[in-house]
Amino acid sequence: MTRGALNVLHISESDVAGGAGRAAYKLHSGLNGLGHRSRMLVGRKVTSDVHVRRLKRNLLWRTLDRASGELLDRLSLQYVFYPSSFGVLGDAWFQGADVVQLHNLHGSYFSFTALPALSRRRPVVWQLHDQWGMTGHVAYSLDCERWRTGCGSCPYLGEYPRLGRDTTALLWRLKDAVYARSRLRLVVPSRWLAELVRASPLLGRFPVDHIPTGIDTVEFRPGPRDEARRRFGLPLDRPIVFFAAAELNERRKGLHLLAEALRRLERPPLLVVAGNGIVASGFEHRSLGTLSNESVLADAYRAADLFVVPTLADVLTQTAPESIACGTPCVSFDRGGVTDVVRHLETGYQARFGDVDDLARGIATLLADDGLRERLSGRCREVAERELSVELQVRRYVELYEEVAAA
Amino acid sequence: MNVLHISESDAAGGAARAAYKLHDDLRKRDHLSRMLVARKLTSDNDVRRLKRHLAWRGLDRASGEVLDRLGLQYAFYPSSFAVAGDPWFRDADVIQLHNTHGSYFSHSALPFLSRRQPVVWLLHDMWAFTGHVAYSYDCERWRHGCGSCPYLGEYPALPRDSTATLWRLKRSLYRRSRLQLVTPSRWLAGLVRSSPLLGRFPVHHIPYGVDTAMFSPGPREEARRRLDLPPDRAIVLFVATDLTEHRKGFQFLDEALAPLDDPLLLAVAASGSTEFAVDTRLLTVDDDWLLVDAYRAADVVVLPTLADNLPNVVIESMACGTPCVAFATGGVPDAVRHLETGYLVRPGDVGALTEGLRTLLADEPLRARLGAASRRAAVEEYSLERQSQRYLDLYAALA
Fold first, then answer.
1. Contacts of A107 in chain B (CB under 8 A)
2. CA A130, CA A16: separation in Å to the nearest integer?
3. Residue of A nearest to B216 (CA)
4. Which of A136, A184, A296, B267 would be A151's cystine partner, CB 3.0–4.6 Å?
5. Contacts with A17 from chain B: Cβ below 8 Å
């Protein structure tokens, strides 16, 4: 079914900061590019896009939110009430929208208690970038399974977004009550997260669609390796493995496991990292700093023989599909959203979860066999063009929006 | 070593970038380094906002508004005193101050803070010893008390001439403070020693460091292709944080470049935009690697700055092996040596600027020789490693 132009309102923490913010903004611009009308309300506005506005337009809302936030945070009632989230109901952008697209709701800017009111008035699609919507508070539950049965006695109070005291059982029940009065359509970027959602007593009640996050396959495309290496002053005659994360030392990104794996190799390749943070000293590596420009980042993938993404918990890192689109095979663990795109001996190597020896074996195997790497590299590009493009993602969202808007 | 930096920002502008590089490099060398800033732009967990709570921001705002109206620039912000209670402050071995001007910190806290911890103050410009300006140009009144300021409108601008009061206020504050001063250029060190305000403190000359692995020579054609620049034209590069800042001398470019044979001006800036009569490509960079490409793509860098400490542009272009044609102002001659690592011109002499550009553009072997010498000098004198070592030696002597 094809209808006229859709009017979509996104609500997101930011328009560019962090992976979730960037993904939200790409969807927003992709929709506008297809002739739809897409607008965004954000907690932090960074771009100068006129179709993006701050959620809390004036000092009054900000002050009210601040007062409410400070008080509730002190009681560890995280994100339970921000007046401005209800103020959205009166916003002309909300009233004119056919569909409201929610992105990350955590980040001290929006309160999930507004969901019943919002979803009674407009069809609401919520894209989950992590587990927060189904846990007492954490974005990633790591090895904890308490979100399946009601939380409480949280072992990861200090994990993002951290809590001062253990109110997780209460927050979990509050989410339950809020969702019971809401009508939501969920979208997840990975199969792994889709399974968790289905298993969740909180979110399992809603329909879930799996739409992978698309990337710019024109910017991220294969190119001459040596030229890319010369750009960064990297050696032309050594194998290079590349690791990238906004915060290098965030534990779930797994840099420490990669370092350990490389230590176990007889002739370790040169490790190149991009991101903010430090690599353990006494370990040979080159740091490219924070790469904020996509054309520069694409060259970093091209310069590498392998991209290693030993993530311990990620819905779907943006980096693995970017690397695959540049024709650089990836090495990852066999768990989490990353396995949607890193396919064993097709686009890379899946090591057993948490097994450093197997990670080392995967790196060594692919580095030793130029023919294999070349075959994988060609396959990477095919997969990227067929499954990972932003155009495909936007088309799928449009289909979903048309469906919920008609319902 | 445990170092706490206090800086206006962690990324905006030359002084802030220099501060962040020092912070980051100390950390990479296994020291503990943290930063309190007024405007946080990176996602670094070792950087925090100076004014954490709404209450401090409200008080600072109130105090600032009143004092600014009276022309008592930066004379009192309550939060600057509260720094002493911050665990990062209490745990530090050394407090490293960067630019304190910029409406976020009050120098009136210096006696209080420097009694509690050793304080090293890195001067990025002249502000600390003038009535208010960051650069005094031809004015010498800072040598004996300011007042009747000829440059009230210069950054940071004042609404009325309170410069004599501000100068005396600085004097009385410094008298009760214990400070170690660092200047990135010999020029600024010389001025500090002749300042009645700051002359009493020890001054150390430590040039800025540049990441010489990142800022490095590379194939010109490839850099031009990436930036979509013509492979065969002479390219003159001009870099400024704000393209339209008068001090950086964009106003000389048209006149200096017009007599040359079909040059392309590549203007790189973080902000600001202006029209040039000469053929110009404007480039906004959001990533240092694009800046590296700009240096590699250019045949020569033009630096018509009227007043400067030690501009990042100088050491970055040298590290990339691209020679500069520059006005011999401030700390520029520290790094650019005439016909050795670049080409120096009398400040304001646009004809000589043209001549310098013409000479270099016409003589490729000369450019190559100057470029190679520049790269050598950058690696020896201006590496991050060298900078950190010099600071660590200083910190060790104090802590």
1. none
2. 17
3. A233
4. A136
5. 43
A330 in helix, strand or coil? strand
CB-based burial of residue A78 (10 Å sphere; 0-12 exposed, 13-18 middle, 19+ buried)?
Answer: buried
Q: What single letter denotes the amino acid at residue B279? A: D
Residue B103: what pLDDT?
Answer: 86
pLDDT band at A315 (very low <50, low <70, confident <90, very high): low
Give how far B43 is from chain A: nearest CA, Å: 8
Nearest CA among A369, A367, A20, A373 for reference residue A187: A20
What pLDDT, on a 0 to 100 scale, did the predictor assign at position B285?
87
B218 interfaces chain A, CB cutoff of 8 Å: yes
B216 interface with A at CB cutoff 8 Å? yes
B277 near A CB under 8 A: no
Residues of B in contact with A246 (CB under 8 A): 43
Cα distances from B225 to residues A209, A394, B270, in angstroms, run 42, 31, 21
Residues of B in contact with A295 (CB under 8 A): 226
Could you tell me if A185 and A127 are in contact, meaning their C-beta atoms sit under 8 angstroms apart? no
Q: What is the mean pLDDT of chain B?
A: 93
CB contact under 8 A, B226 and A291: no
Q: Are strands B179-183 and B203-205 parallel, antiparallel or unpaired?
A: parallel
Task: Tell me if A214 sits within 8 A of A194, measured CB to CB.
Answer: no
Gap between the Cα atoms of A78 and A135, Å rounded: 12
Neighbours of B258 (CB within 10 A): 12
**Is the bond preceding residue B230 a cis peptide, omega within 30 degrees?**
no
Local confidence band at A22 (pLDDT 50, 70, 90 cut-offs): confident
For residues B32 and A74, the model is more confident at B32
Q: CA A254 from chain center: how many Å?
A: 16
Tell me what pLDDT residue A1 has: 40
User: Edge-to-edge, what's the strand order for the sheet holding B300-303?
Assistant: B280-284, B264-271, B235-242, B300-303, B324-327, B342-345
Q: Is the peptide bond before B111 cis (omega within 30 degrees of 0)?
A: no
The pLDDT score that the predictor gives to residue A316 is 64
Q: In A294-313, which positions are buried (b, 16+ CB within 10 angstroms) versus exposed (e)?
A: bebbbbbbbbbbbbbbbbbb
* DSSP 8-state symbol, B309: S
Question: Residue B287 is nearest to which of A230, A286, A296, comparing CB atoms?
Answer: A296
Report the pLDDT value the prediction gives residue A314, as an integer from 0 to 100: 67
Residues of A in contact with B294 (CB under 8 A): none
Handedness of CA A377, A382, A386, A390 (dihedral sign): positive
Q: Do A247 and B43 touch (CB under 8 A)?
A: yes
pLDDT tens-place string over residues B46-56: 999 998 777 88
What is d(CA A267, CA A287) in angstroms, rounded to the nearest whole number? Answer: 20
Q: Note whether A296 contacts B28, CB cutoff 8 Å.
A: no
Contact between A16 and A47 (Cβ < 8 Å): yes
Average pLDDT value for chain A: 92
What is the DSSP code (8-state) at residue A65?
A: H
User: Would the CB atoms of B289 and A290 count as touching at under 8 Å?
Assistant: no
pLDDT in tens, A194-251: 999 999 999 999 999 999 888 899 999 999 999 999 999 999 999 999 999 988 988 8
